[in-house]
Design goal:
Chain B: Its main location: membrane. The complex is a heterodimer of chains A (238) and B (119). By secondary structure, chain A is mostly helical. Chain A has two domains: 75 residues, no CATH class; 163 residues, no CATH class. Helix content of chain A is 82%, strand content 0%. The termini of chain A are far apart. Chain B contains six helices and no strands. Chain B has 119 residues and is an all-alpha fold. Chain B has two domains: 70 residues, no CATH class; 45 residues. Classes of the chains: A mainly alpha (238), B mainly alpha (119). At the A-B interface, α2, α3, α4, α5 and α6 of A face α1, α2, α3, α4 and α5 of B.
């Protein structure tokens, strides 16, 4: 019979442990979120991150060990970005019908996302490196990290900011839109998909099918728009 | 299922290759997204159903999109030492920017929709 410490040493050399824990943390978080009728505060991404960050702290393992297992999930962000072509293709007819409002909202939204960071970041005294990592935060993680890296930012910092932006948008969208008395679910969905990418889109699908659909389209379009807007803003201001 | 995943990876691969060789300022997966969309439209126009398995795989990915953000999000543990001193201001900026972006986007959408509707 081997001692538990030996088992721990054995397991910690393989990606199996943290990969399995990540998947179960997610399943658990989704179960809690469903139990709480998908209340915005019970965001499954937030719950999973808190659980896993807590487990890392308790075990004293470094993030690198965790990521050695979780990288297999992280890698899927690439094909998941390509996958956005499918809802775009299916809903192309609806996209074409609302083309003008969407293109206008896309331009205004993608510039607002980056310019607001530029202005507030400069006012808040953020360094150039942090600003670059900050600017693409409304694009989906794979895209934002690639933009950040190509401009000399830290992609890991970008990833954290992207996820935080996603969670914040998913938390505030419903109360904000209600306070603004906006009942058009296409417009609401488009706004949260543009602002909060996949996490916002998941939230939109929880609220309303039309909202989810437009959120998915906005996420796809803003992945493209952010790749064009952020390098432009960096060239102009930094 | 495997064919679907293979197709998504193939389009990402093509996208990354184009970006790498041309030096265009777009991320590879975004180019893959656009190419897959164009390919699906072409197939539809020609009456071919090449992408039905890619659609199944895509639905699977998109239904669990939140999960894919978790590994990156846990990265906050590794960056916490650096971020701790600036955490308040970073969070304030993120919240303010998210609210501004949501409001500006939704207003523009609705304003232009009304404008177009009136014509």
């Amino acid at each position: 019979m081997k001692r538990p410490a030996e088992l721990w040493v054995y397991l910690s050399t393989s990606p199996l442990l943290w990969l399995t824990l990540t998947l179960f943390a997610w399943l658990f978080a989704v179960a809690i979120s469903t139990r709480l009728k998908r209340h915005p505060l019970a965001n499954p991404v937030l719950i999973s991150i808190v659980l896993l960050a807590g487990a890392l702290r308790l075990s004293g393992e470094p993030y690198e060990k965790f990521f050695a297992g979780a990288q297999y999930i992280h890698f899927l962000l690439g094909p998941a970005t390509v996958a956005i072509a499918v809802p775009l293709f299916r809903q192309w007819r609806q996209v074409k019908r609302a083309l003008l409002p969407m293109v206008a909202a896309l331009v205004v939204g993608s510039f607002t996302a980056a310019l607001s960071i530029m202005l507030m970041g400069a006012w808040g005294g953020l360094s150039r490196d942090v600003l670059i990592a900050f600017l693409p935060k409304s694009a989906t993680a794979g895209v934002a990290m690639a933009i950040s890296e190509s401009l000399g930012g830290n992609p890991s910092l970008t990833a954290v900011l992207v996820v935080l932006t996603g969670i914040i948008g998913a938390l505030v969208v419903t109360p904000l839109m209600n306070a603004m008395r906006i009942r058009d679910y296409a417009a609401r969905g488009f706004a949260v998909g543009l602002t909060s990418h996949g996490i916002g889109t998941a939230r939109a699908f929880d609220v309303d099918q039309t909202a989810g659909l437009f959120a998915g389209i906005a996420m796809a379009l803003n992945a493209i728009a952010t790749s064009l807007v952020v390098p432009l803003i960096v060239r102009l201001f930094l | 299922m495997i064919k679907g995943i293979a197709l998504l990876l193939l389009f990402q691969l093509i996208g990354e290759s184009i970006v790498f060789s041309s030096g265009m300022p777009l991320p590879g997966p975004v180019v893959g997204l656009v190419l897959l969309f164009v390919a699906m439209q072409l197939c539809k126009a020609m009456g071919l159903g090449l992408f039905s398995e890619a659609e199944t795989a895509a639905d699977g990915f998109l239904a669990n999109l939140g999960l894919l953000f978790v590994p990156a999000g846990v990265g906050i543990v590794a960056l916490w030492g650096e971020l701790q001193s600036q955490a308040g201001i970073l969070l304030a900026i993120l919240v303010a920017s998210a609210i501004l972006t949501l409001a500006a986007t939704v207003w523009t959408f609705i304003a232009v929709q009304r404008l177009v509707g009136r014509e």
